Every structure is written in structure tokens, then in C-alpha cells.
Request: fold
Amino acid sequence: MHFIGAITRAKDGTITGFKLRSTQDSKELVVKYQSGAALIERKEIITAEELRASLGISENALSKAILDGVVFSVDFKGVNYFPAFFADPELDWKRLARVAKPLHGLSGWHKWFFFTSPKGSLGDLTPLEALKRGMKEDVLTAAYGFAER
Reply:
């Protein structure tokens, strides 16, 4: 998938939103991100050290998970942060990893958008909410559809 678009930034450099248009199907996708600083403050995205501590894994284990496409990061002001949902005890790690794999070629922010945005195909639940309800196959189907756009 290839996208073109424009990023909107606040004076402090935080991404406040951007408009993307797929070069494959010319459908516009409007993505509005909350300030990265607010996500950090609310602990929705965390550092590698925080994620490793939460999961009780080594730096090598986290590196392998990243390379395998199981875990992803988002860049904010030149620092990689990880979605805190990877450490959520209510989410089955293996199911989450299985859903993340089809999204492997997408940017971290696109993956964030996928996991945290309600989907009509999931009854207006986010993929995270749907996974917590055991809808793993539906979420996987949604992930493949999202990756193909």
C-alpha cells in the first residue's frame, strides 16, 4: 500500500492530523491523531523499557518481536514508543500478534489507527475491543482488509 498526503502539525511539532490518499484506489482516508504528548501522558504509548518491564521480557526478545512483525512502534519527536495495549493483560498476546502480522508493511501510526478506531465490520467496536470479546477471526479479516487498501 502506498499513500500520499499532508501532515498537520502543532507549533511544538506534534502531529495533530493528516489526510492521506491511497495511490492504489484514490480513496481518501482522513486520520486525526491526538497529540503524541497526550498519548504519552495517558500511558497509551510507552517506551521500550516500560513495555519490556510490563511484559517481563529482554531487549533481545522485544527486538525479535519487532522484527517478526508482532510488535510495532510509533515515532514521536524522534523517539519510538509502543502501544501500551501490547501489555494489556485482557488481550491475548498470541491473538494480538496474529492480527498485527498482516499489517507488517504499514507504518506504526497506520497500525495504531487500525487497532484504536471503530470498524463497521466489527459492530462499531475497535479491533482491541473486539479481540477482548473473542472476535479474533473477524478482527483478522478486518486487518487483512485494512492492509489491502
In short: Helices lie at 36-41, 48-55, 59-67, 93-100, 108-116, 127-132, 136-148. Residues 50 and 132 are 22 Å apart (CA to CA).
